[in-house]
Write a structure and sequence with these properties.
heterodimer; A: 203 residues; Alpha-Beta Plaits; 5 helices; B: alpha+beta; Gyrase A, domain 2; 2 domains; 5-stranded antiparallel β-sheet; two-stranded antiparallel ribbon; 4 helices; 7 strands
Chain lengths: 203, 215
Amino acid sequence: MNFDAPLIRKLAPSMRRALIVTFVALVIAVALISFAILPTRARLKKLASEIDVLNADLASVRADIAATDRQKDKTAALAAQRDAFLESGVIEPLLGSFAMRGKALLDPFAQETGFNIETVKELPLIPLQVPSPAPLQLYGRQPVEFSGRGSYTQITAFISYAERALPLATLSSLLILGQPQNPEIHKALITFEWPAKGEKRKP
Amino acid sequence: MRKPLHLDLLKDEERLSASPIRLRVMLPVFSLLAALGIAVWWSVLVARAHTLGLQKAGLENAIAELKPAHTSLLALRAEEQDTAATLKQLAYYKNARVVFGETFAKLADHVPEKVQFTELRVPPPPPLPPQDPKKPLLGPTNPVERVTLRLAGRTSGPEPVNALFQTLRTPAFTNLIRSAEIPKGAFRQDTARNAANRETLLFELTCECAPRRFE
């Protein structure tokens, strides 16, 4: 900035004082606008938007809390549905063994049909398709292999009885082999599978 | 000769303009008033900001007070979602259930006299494809599992087997068996038996059953 000193000096002292006061007042005004008004307005804008968000949050939290009883009922109803499903045929190991559980479940049908179970073997768990979002507790397909002997009628009756009485038992694989030395009695390898608990996922 | 004499005894600052508004007074007054006005505006804004700050703190407190109740509600919602996901996964299993017993029982009544089964096989589920160790999956991604049935046995000729093949395509079996075929080279001589039984043929039938749909 270039001041014309002789021109200022030529002015009357009262005029010079007036100009100086005006200049100082204007500098103060500009400084106030730049360093106080504008930042305060920005802060106000930010505060107003934060308050809007908080008001919306509060309204939503209050609405959520008002619906707690309904949510409790909904959660309990679904849990009851799940428990009913689990009780309908999701198997758990008996004395740590799925083979024992399978034998305990199918022995009555074997006795009823005359199918002679010789051995029972637990096969590795087959993972089940996972929905999205995935549940924390995953379930899988637990196959249990029964080997035994019986006539074709006994074998098919054994399978039919199990399928009718155990709504979640599914025939996973089957091998019926004829025996030339005894055509009436066949050797059978019957694998049934049930849903069973798999691994537990970390949330 | 007369000459006018002009004596200027006024100092510069004593010189007054003809206008009643004096610039040297009004300029600083207006600028000071402007500065004052801006300062007042600022103080109003500061007061408003303070009020809004109090309002914000009040809202935050109100939300914080409701937090325990809200957290328990969110936990209930998460539990509901998890239970729904469990039910969905178990439903995949239930929907994929295929029943064999009744069909196998009926099969015995439809086997022609000159057919004797030596083997009936439903193969186990196919093994899962190898996992990518970098991105292990929680479960299989293919929702459909193929189910097949293989029948093998002895017969006196192709006609009884063809009759059985036609039977498998009747409504009594189509709920389980979707298609059946006699593979090429399915008939061959039973060389393992003695010469008297050389007329016996070994045969094979393969059937495609209803697939298991895990969805």
